[in-house]
Specification:
Length: 315
C-alpha cells in the first residue's frame, strides 16, 4: 500500500516513523512551510520535514495543499494518513487518494473537535478521552469513524503525559488500521453523540484567578503545561506581574483558609497551599515573569509572605 503522510509538529513524527518502517511505503510527506524560529528568526523546517529528509522521503510543503493537488494525484497513492497537519484539506486533495484520507485525532469524536483536544480535555476536567481514526471530509473533524479507542484520564495527568500516552495508543490503532485496509476493510461509521470544540490555544486561555474553583485551576495547570502555561496576574508594589504555575495538586478536604488567595500553609516540600473559591490547591512549581522556575515557597519568601497572608491576585 502506497501512502502519503501529512503532518507538521513533533507529536506527528512517531507516526511518520511507523509508516516509514516498511521501505518504499511512504511516497511523499506533506508538511507546512518552513517558519521563522529562534532569536534570529531564521526559517526552520517543521519537525516532520526534518525527519522525513533524514529518512530520505520526498517532502512537499506548500502554503496551501490545493496548490499540489495534481502532484498528489500523480503519485497514485492508495491512502493519506494525517496527523496534526494544521490545515483543512479540500475536495481536490481528499480525492487524490484511492481510499481517502485517514486522520488520527486525540479525542473521542465528536467531542473536542479542533486543534487542541488534549489540552482542552484536561482544562475542562474531562474524565476520559481517547484516539479516533476517521476519514476526512471538508468539515473540521466531522468525517465518518474508522476506529476509536477510549482511555480514562488520570487525576494528576498533565498534557505532556497524556499526549505521550495517546500517541502510543494511536500508533497501535494505525498499525491495526493498515492491516485491516490491506485485507479490504474500510469501516465508515457516522459520528454519534454531542459535539464540542477544542479550538487553537491563545496565550490568554492560560489565565486564571483564585476566584475559580480549585479543580478548574488545576485543570488549566495540567492542560496548559506545555503552552501557554496557566498563569495568574499578581498586583505587587512594583506593579502587575504574571506568575505561571507549572505544577499543582488538589487538596479538596482542607478547611477553608479564608478568602480566595489566602495562604493556608507552606509545605516542607516547598509547596504552598492556596485557597480557591471552593477548596485549596497546592502550588508546587511556579515561574515569575521573566525569571526561572522555582518552588512556590521560595517565591513567597521573596515576597515576604507567609501562612495567613494572601496572594494579591487580580480577579
Amino acid at each position: 500500500m502506497k501512502i502519503v503522510f501529512f503532518g507538521t509538529p513533533a507529536p506527528a513524527v512517531p507516526f511518520l516513523e511507523l509508516l516509514a518502517s516498511e521501505k518504499g511505503r511512504v511516497a511523499a510527506v506533506v508538511t507546512q512551510p518552513d517558519r521563522p524560529a529562534g532569536r534570529g528568526l531564521e526559517a526552520r523546517p517543521s519537525p516532520v520535514k526534518a525527519r522525513a529528509l533524514g529518512l530520505g522521503i520526498a517532502v512537499l510543503n506548500p502554503e496551501r495543499p490545493s496548490l499540489i493537488a495534481a502532484d498528489l494525484k500523480a503519485l497514485g497513492a492508495d491512502l493519506a494518513v494525517v496527523v496534526a497537519y494544521g490545515r483543512i484539506l479540500k475536495e481536490d486533495v481528499l480525492g487524490a487518494f484511492r481510499l481517502g484520507c485517514l486522520n488520527v485525532h486525540f479525542s473521542l469524536l465528536p467531542r473536542l473537535r479542533g486543534a487542541a483536544p488534549v489540552q482542552w480535555a484536561l482544562a475542562r476536567g474531562e474524565a476520559k478521552t481517547g484516539v479516533t481514526l476517521f476519514w476526512l471530509d471538508e468539515g473540521m473533524d466531522t468525517g465518518p469513524i474508522f476506529s476509536q479507542i477510549e482511555t480514562p484520564i488520570g487525576p494528576e495527568e498533565n498534557a505532556a503525559e497524556l499526549l505521550e500516552r495517546l500517541t502510543n495508543l494511536g500508533l497501535g490503532s494505525v498499525r491495526e488500521a493498515l492491516a485491516d485496509l490491506e485485507r479490504g476493510g474500510a469501516r465508515r461509521e457516522p459520528q454519534k453523540g454531542e459535539a464540542s470544540l477544542a479550538p487553537l490555544l491563545r496565550k490568554e486561555d492560560g489565565r486564571f484567578s483564585f476566584d475559580e474553583t480549585a479543580r478548574a485551576v488545576h485543570g488549566k495547570v495540567r492542560g496548559f503545561c506545555l503552552w501557554p502555561r496557566a498563569f495568574v496576574v499578581l498586583r505587587l508594589p512594583k506593579g502587575e506581574t504574571k506568575l505561571s504555575v507549572l505544577s499543582a495538586g488538589l487538596e479538596e478536604n482542607s478547611p477553608k483558609a479564608g478568602p480566595p488567595g489566602a495562604i493556608a500553609r507552606v509545605g516542607r516540600d516547598g509547596g504552598v497551599l492556596i485557597q480557591c473559591r471552593d477548596a485549596c490547591l497546592w502550588l508546587r512549581t511556579v515561574c515569575p515573569e521573566g525569571k526561572k522556575p522555582l518552588a512556590a515557597a521560595e517565591f513567597l519568601n521573596g515576597l515576604r509572605l507567609k501562612a495567613g497572608d494572601a496572594l494579591p491576585f487580580q480577579a
